[in-house]
Amino acid sequence: MPPTTVRITAVDTYDIRFPTSRELDGSDAMNPDPDYSAAYVILRTSAGGPEGHGFTFTIGRGNDVQVAAIDALREHVVGRSVAELCADPGSLYRDLIGDSQLRWLGPEKGVMHMAIGAVVNAVWDLAAKRERKPVWQFLADADPAWLASQVDFRYISDALTQDEAVELLRKGRQGAPDRAADLLRRGYPAYTTSPGWLGYSDEKLTHLAEQAVTDGFTQIKLKVGADLEDDIRRCRAAREAVGPDVRIAIDANQRWDVTQAIEWTKALAEFDPYWIEEPTSPDDILGHAAIRRGVHPVKVATGEHVQNRIVFKQFLQAGAIDVLQLDSARVAGVNENIAILLLAAKFGIPVCPHAGGVGLCELVQHLSMFDYVALSGTKQDRVIEFVDHLHQHFLDPVDVTGGHYQAPTAPGFSAAMHQTTIDTFTYPHGTFWAAEAASDKPGNATKDHV
Q: Where does the source fall among the domains of life (predicted)?
């Protein structure tokens, strides 16, 4: 008898939330009280095979909406052959993008698009585990033509064709073994946002900035945009703490109009900011271009809230950014992020991904490492954001040593959480949240926010 085909038997979802607002971790000018959260998905398989883990990141209330969006995709996934799915993750990507009734809610943006990203990332986790490789290596070892076939070129072929993508990937493979060895030996450069949350005191900022330099980081980032005098004081404290040779990036988290962004950035120019991040709406391509002209030589960076490959294409075509900050869980997963990396390579723009959150560091390291090994071939002016919280909840947490991400070696996408974390922080019935509800403490910060 032929062997039984291994199939996806279940798509299990979890609304996982952490009370980070209590210590103001993650606070910025636009999001003063985030409770870092993950809409988490596990693809179960028959015959006891490996599972696929994925998630998308939110900040509290509304994570239940995000989980519901993932649940709406279940019928496209359950019953699929695992072998066929892992041989062509793009087949599922195309089916999920193409569900016309769900597509109407985007198209290709927002809650549904993030849900697709969570599921698609779980498929890549499963595929890499089956090959016993970390995702970065799985991608770097992939045949260029096959990898290009995973990209949806609709709406971007005027800027990047499939043939061009294949050629970029073939060129990227030249010298890849040496770069992979270098990656395993030295890691990938990181910068840290941990000193710069807007809710931190000047004393805490100074201490963490000094610690960052001691730990080997050559770039830190500060949140700005709520009050100019506060920003001047905080940037001065940070510059005094790190000295003249460490880069300081600043991040406004979409707070400003275009003219205000130019004026505010110029007011902070004496502290030599390396880039201004998200100076205005992530949808305002021409506004970013105007800001870029207005604040030069300060660089303009954006991307963590850019909703799809089409908008990234236009940012690049318009010459609106100096630094592209893709996010591992904002767009529709690995497939679309490959498209974005290819676009950045075509236009010669460095990629410095957004990370932090819940598990974003764990995911995005794989994308940058693939880019270095088998696409752009360089780490010049490229860094991955690092935020030092919540990593303990993952089975394969990031390892940042000497200011560098160390390359993951465990198979998969580094996405799996400990079962105890799932049991504790699933909202509202996990043990942590159940205890909170039972205590019914007045003035509880997270009850006000979640």
A: Bacteria
With contact defined as beta carbons under 8 Å apart, do 292 and 300 qualify?
Answer: yes
Question: What pLDDT, on the 0 to 100 scale, is given for residue 447?
Answer: 44
Catalytic site includes residue 223 = yes
Range(s) of the domain holding residue 184:
176-405
The rounded distance, in Å, linking the Cα atoms of 254 and 264 is: 13
Query: Mean per-residue pLDDT for 84-96?
Result: 97
Q: How much is the average pLDDT of 387-415?
A: 97
Average pLDDT over residues 356-369: 97
Whether 106 is in a domain gets the answer no
HEC readout, 12-74 = EEEEEECCHHHHCCCCCCCCCCCCCEEEEEEEEEHHHCCCEEEEEEECCCCHHHHHHHHHCCH
140 in Cβ contact with 180 (< 8 Å): yes
pLDDT at 215 over 90: yes
Position 385 in a domain: yes
Q: Write down the residue that tokens 């696409």 correspond to.
A: 375
Catalytic residue flag (residue 366):
no
Spatial separation of the C-alpha atoms in residues 407 and 369, rounded to whole Å: 8
Per-residue confidence (pLDDT) for residue 199, from 0 to 100: 82
Pairs from 154-158 (Cβ < 8 Å, separation ≥ 24): 155/309, 155/310, 155/313, 156/309, 156/310, 156/313, 156/339, 156/343
For residue 295, being part of any structural domain is answered with yes
CA distance 63 to 59: 7
| CATH number of the domain enclosing 390 | 3.20.20.120
Largest CA distance in the chain: 76
Domain count, the chain: 1
**Catalytic residue among 133, 221, 288, 354, which?**
354
With pLDDT > 70 as the criterion, what percentage of the chain qualifies? 94
Residue 442 has pLDDT above 60, yes or no: no
Neighbours of 435 (CB within 10 A): 10
Residue 282 lies in a domain: yes
Q: Which of 109, 129, 221, 223 is catalytic?
A: 223
Residue range 22-75, pLDDT digits in tens: 665 554 555 556 789 999 999 999 987 899 999 999 999 999 999 999 999 999
Q: How many CA atoms lie within 13 A of 201 on its CB side?
A: 4
